Amino acid sequence: MASRTLISRATRIKTKLETALQTAVLEVEDVSYQHAGHAAMRGIEGGANETHFNVSIVSTKFEGHNLVKRHRMVYDLLSDELQSGLHALSITAKTPKEAGLAVGNDKE
Predict the structure, then answer these.
(1) Is the per-residue pLDDT at 1 higher than 60?
(2) Which of 11, 82, 102, 107 has a 20 to 30 A CA-CA distance from 43?
(3) Looking at residue 106, what DSSP letter applies?
């Protein structure tokens, strides 16, 4: 039998977002432990493992898009995760300028 390497949901989220959004900053925080006792999580095998995440993203891909569109971009990228156990996602989505990062020739 071939061995199979399991990749954590946090790693999959990070890889998908980094690749598609070419992130300048990406933080993925698993906060599932904070929800382990909630009613909706009690029926999940193993408790609330990898079900709740906070993500903070800075990307030039967000330029020209309002907050709703930015969130939709993230949800679309993670649709398979949302259909396979990801229960909640808190998103902070900023452009480099909004995050106070210098980009390209904007450095002084």
Answers:
(1) no
(2) 11
(3) G
